[in-house]
UniProtKB/TrEMBL annotation, chain A:
One BP annotation, GO: gluconeogenesis
Cofactors named for this entry: [4Fe-4S] cluster
Pathway membership: Carbohydrate biosynthesis; gluconeogenesis
Protein name in the entry: L-serine dehydratase
Alphabetical list of InterPro entries matching this protein: Fe-S_L-Ser, Ser_deHydtase-like_asu, Ser_deHydtase_asu
Catalytic reaction(s) noted: L-serine = pyruvate + NH4(+)
The enzyme's E.C. designation: 4.3.1.17
UniProt KW keywords: 4Fe-4S, Gluconeogenesis, Iron, Iron-sulfur, Lyase, Metal-binding
Name of a matching Pfam family: SDH_alpha
One GO molecular-function entry: metal ion binding
Top-level class of the enzyme under EC nomenclature: lyase
From TrEMBL, chain B:
The keyword Lyase is annotated on this UniProt entry: yes
Protein name: L-serine deaminase
TM stretches of this protein: none
Organism from which the protein derives: Salsuginibacillus halophilus
One Pfam family in the UniProt entry: SDH_beta
Span of domain ACT: 148-220
């Protein structure tokens, strides 16, 4: 079992050839399953992700509260009609990330990657770079193993819970996982995957978890948008040969310590940040039809 | 290393909106139901920390109710589970607690049916992964990576040996074991993590042993 990113990368370079393969071998060893079974389980999850993306992009999704829904579809329609400022791949990733998170907010079926609140980033970027890189279905399954391997490093050395570490632990982790997997899918080395993860996470450090009314909607859906775009940017930077000055494991440790220092008001309690703005409070009162004292 | 499987990270497949507050809560509810062994008629639900502050928005209440009805994280009946629980005659009582707990997402469930009562404390540690930290007042430190057998028994000599003999006869290996008791000679709890899957026959045989009161299992 790899303890940190350095061990994961070393094993990929020295032995298994790729991050995805290290994760597949680890899973076979840990659960006593066959390679086919492990790949099959992951492919089923890929199917769930694809269905959620399709639903969010094509259907009119709305959450029970009415706070979110339809923005992924809106962005996709905008990007299809004209030349955009940020370009088709990035906007496709952002639209699909938001779409997935809107399906999640509407109590639809999703696959947590690594959490439900951050479930848009990994599938959003995967199904966007799919058109660019033309991967096989197996390559796409491997993308999820690479994401999972880096996510596991964060989960075991820091946290993937907003209540424990803030949004940096959720969307931050998801974006780092996606960046590493995009890099590998695009032909980058395991070291470059590590740098992509590090550069992504560095840009997510300190991000608080401040959901309005305690709902996984505002600002979660739009933070998935940010996570997807930073992941793509960092993957391109890593593929260009840019390296993180701070090693990825140290970035993860920094994230953990920042999470420890963060006030509980900013860790999924709906007491601080955007949740505590006048509009956040007004929405909360309207949604629950009562005034909630969270002090 | 709390997380060992890639499917803890890429997963679970679930009904939204929150892996820790919805999927994790459903899993804790379901473990409680499993360990109780039957549908309760009343459940007191004490929510702590972030669970207490945001359970309405995250559907934590819905998810706990669904878990208590034995629904999995992706069961499409989850959104209606509070009503379904009521229809089945399960009375749910909610308590928002202010006490500070070790983990921000903590819930204490007290299940009742007739004279029977069970109290369980679960925490949701992120991404849908959960741990049971307390059962009927006994502290637990389960890894959650392997199937576990729970045995409530009278604190008498030989019970632990009998149980381990039964497992040895079936070529089941014990990876981790905890024993705790309220007091000398009183009710005790044995929790055994094993490497092999636990089938129903094992539980039936263990239940027949002298001084064993109740047996339950959770798969990993």
């Amino acid at each position: 079992m790899f303890k940190n990113a350095a061990e994961l990368i070393e094993r990929a370079v020295m032995k298994e050839g790729s991050i995805a393969e290290v994760m597949i071998q680890q899973e076979i060893h840990e659960k006593g399953k066959t390679r086919d079974e492990v790949l099959q389980t992951m492919e089923e999850r890929l199917d769930i992700m694809e269905q959620a993306v399709d639903r969010g992009i094509n259907e009119d999704v709305e959450s029970v509260s009415g706070l979110t829904g339809g923005d992924g579809k809106r962005l996709a329609a905008y990007a299809a009609k004209q030349n955009t400022l940020s370009g088709p791949v990035l906007l496709d990733a952002v639209a699909k990330a938001m779409a997935t998170n809107e399906v999640n907010a509407a109590m639809g079926t999703i696959c947590a990657t690594p959490t439900a609140g951050s479930a848009g980033v990994v599938p959003g970027t995967l199904f966007a770079v799919k058109d660019q890189l033309n991967p096989t279905r197996e390559d796409m399954v491997k993308f999820l193993f690479t994401s999972g391997a880096f996510g596991m490093v964060v989960a075991n050395n820091a946290s993937i819970s907003g209540a424990a570490g803030g949004c940096q632990a959720e969307v931050g982790s998801a974006a780092g996982m996606a960046a590493a997997a995009i890099t590998e899918l695009a032909g980058g080395t395991p070291e470059q995957s590590g740098h992509a993860m590090a550069m992504t996470l560095k840009n997510m450090l300190g991000l608080v978890c401040d959901p309005v009314a305690g709902l996984v909607e505002v600002p979660c859906v739009k933070r998935n948008a940010a996570g997807a775009s930073i992941a793509l940017m960092a993957a391109d930077m890593a593929l260009a040969g840019i390296e993180s000055r701070i090693p990825v494991d140290e970035v993860i440790t920094a994230m953990y310590k920042i999470g420890e220092n963060m006030s509980d008001d900013l860790k999924e309690t709906a007491r601080g940040g955007l949740a505590a703005t006048p509009t956040g409070r007004r929405l909360e009162t309207e949604i629950f039809n009562i005034s909630l004292d969270r002090s | 290393m709390k997380y060992r499987s890639v499917f803890d990270i890429i997963g679970p497949v679930m009904i939204g909106p929150s892996s820790s507050h919805t999927a994790g809560a459903a899993r804790i509810g379901r473990l409680a139901r499993l360990l109780f062994g039957e549908a309760p008629t009343e459940v007191q639900i004490h929510l702590y920390g972030s669970f207490a502050k945001t359970y309405r928005g995250h559907g934590t209440d819905v998810a706990l109710a669904g878990g208590l009805l034995d629904f999995d994280t992706f069961d499409e009946r989850l959104p209606e589970s509070i009503q379904l629980a009521e229809d089945q005659g399960i009375q749910l009582r909610w308590f928002e607690e202010h006490a500070v707990t070790d983990h921000p997402n903590t819930v204490r469930l007290r299940l009742k049916k007739g004279e029977r009562e069970m109290e369980i404390v679960g925490i949701s540690i992120g991404g849908g992964k959960v741990e049971i930290t307390e059962l009927n007042g006994f502290d637990l430190r389960l890894s959650g990576h392997h199937p576990a057998i729970f045995i409530v028994h009278q604190d008498r000599y030989g019970v632990i040996a009998e149980v381990s003999n039964q497992l040895a006869e079936r070529e089941m290996n014990i990876g981790h074991m905890e024993v705790s008791r309220r007091d000398k000679g009183e009710e005790a709890l044995m929790v055994i993590e094993v490497d092999q899957p636990v089938d129903a026959a094992v539980l039936t045989d263990l239940e027949k042993l002298d001084h064993v009161i109740q047996v339950a299992k959770i798969q990993d």
